[in-house]
Backbone:
């Protein structure tokens, strides 16, 4: 079976990690909470949080009719503390966070690296920078769409682990 959940209707908890928790991980949190509504509950965090979400990330989410009330830049230590939600999955979405030593997560969640280029690091015009956020959103949306379509409860843990790792090795053009 997939990660253990108390009841078939209990959502899987998913944490998206990035260094700054201002762009990619915030986008992923918003996407999964909408696309996986009822089946998944997503959060995001960073090893060195910037303190606030990137304005272009928030603008894009608003433009795509996401509620942005959830969006805040926070440390991943919040999710390693007693009383924090127990994660079923932890995904890194930036290469630098993947290389860092992560906290020990209660419950030993399944993890994978889903690296996406950092849209906040792009140098260029405002239009080019905003386009980088659109591209990051598209890549994350495609990966998350594949993830939410996996038959979680019918896959054994090893098969599920392979599948979530495979999603991260590809940058699909379409879901």
Residues:
């Amino acid at each position: 079976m997939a990660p253990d959940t108390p009841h078939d209707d209990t959502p899987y908890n998913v944490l998206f990690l990035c260094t700054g928790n201002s762009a990619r991980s915030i986008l992923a949190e918003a996407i999964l909470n909408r696309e996986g509504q009822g089946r998944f509950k997503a959060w995001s965090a960073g090893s060195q949080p910037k303190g606030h979400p990137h304005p272009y990330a928030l603008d894009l989410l608003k433009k795509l009719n996401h509620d942005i009330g959830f969006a805040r830049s926070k440390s991943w230590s919040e999710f390693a503390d007693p009383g924090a939600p127990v994660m079923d999955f932890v995904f890194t979405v930036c290469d630098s966070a993947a290389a860092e030593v992560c906290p020990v997560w209660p419950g030993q969640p399944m993890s994978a690296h889903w690296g996406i280029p950092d849209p906040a690091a792009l140098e260029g015009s405002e239009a080019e920078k905003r386009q980088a956020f659109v591209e990051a959103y598209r890549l994350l949306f495609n990966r998350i769409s594949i993830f939410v379509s996996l038959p979680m409860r019918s896959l054994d843990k090893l098969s599920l682990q392979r599948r979530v790792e495979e999603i991260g090795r590809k940058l699909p053009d379409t879901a």
